[in-house]
Amino acid sequence: MISITLNIEEKSYGSETPVLGSLRGQFKLGKITAIVGPSGCGKSTLLNMIAGLESSQKGEVGFSETSEIKPRVGYIFQSPRLMPWLTAKENLELIAGKSNPAIQETLSAMGILDKLDSYPSQLSGGMQRRVSIARAFVYQPELLLLDEPFTSLDAPTADQLRQQLIALWQRQQSTMVFVTHDLREAISMADEIWFLSRPPTTVIHTLSINQPPK
Ligand code: ADP
Ligand code: ADP
User: 61 Cβ partners below 8 Å, 6+ apart?
Assistant: First the structure.
């Protein structure tokens, strides 16, 4: 399994005060880490830096011993970001390739096998979210990043999605890092919680949780 080490000295946008200060740590391999902190403290920025979508001006995000090896990173964004001109199945085929059996399996695990041929505009917000989660899993990511994946869903739908996500994750046991402002969600899902301060953001506390067997 590929390890992920944060060794960020500073990150700022433009000339303003830094968003992220000294941020050091290692995510638990094959476990779920929740990142919790006030709005605007740089949680999305941090995820983007881990994904390589945003550069770290000072310091680095390292993978394993050599930073040459980049893991397969799956990213589940706050909004589903599906290709609107492709059906649910075609959105997954784009990642997994045509007639990949993982597509059926994953859509089935998310309970949306009957939505294979629907376009995103024909699906509810919750259904779109399910497709976007399935899309991340068919990629079989070694590292899965999630940015507030359950916001703006009603409580029962969010609960169901959390359970389906955990069930899919248990099959692959990739390293998962998710951002949330919902402490209860963090406590119910994560093996470790990182609490971030206000900018310049650092990790102010980490909390390990012994999750009951799921
Ligand atoms: P969080 O996810 O914790 O709400 P963000 O990482 O989205 O925090 O943002 C942290 C701060 O950086 C905010 O003040 C935000 O306005 C700013 N910021 C985020 N992205 C950009 C960007 N691309 N350009 C300039 N400022 C940004
Ligand atoms: P969140 O609170 O979930 O992090 P935001 O609404 O803060 O989401 O940010 C959404 C997008 O806008 C992100 O891609 C972020 O990089 C960008 N962004 C946020 N703040 C700024 C900013 N001040 N200037 C430019 N882009 C920004």
Answer: 4, 5, 6, 7, 8, 49, 50, 52
Atom 19, ligand 2: residue with shortest CA distance: 40
The pTM for the full model equals 0.90
CA of 85 to the centre of ligand 2 (A): 26
Query: DSSP states of 81-134 as a string?
Result: ---TTS-HHHHHHHHH-TT-HHHHHHHHHTT-GGGTT--GGGS-HHHHHHHHHH
Q: At what angle do helices 101-109 and 155-172 cross, to 10 degrees?
A: 140
Distances (CA, A) of 149 to 8, 49, 95, 133: 25, 18, 19, 9
Do residues 178 and 185 touch, judged by C-beta distance below 8 A?
no
Element spanning 176, H or E: strand 175-180
Residue with tokens 């650092």: 202
Find how far residue 89's CA is from the centre of its chain: 21
Q: Which two tokens stand for residue 8?
A: 């960020």
Task: Check pLDDT > 90 for residue 193.
Answer: yes
ipTM greater than 0.95 = no
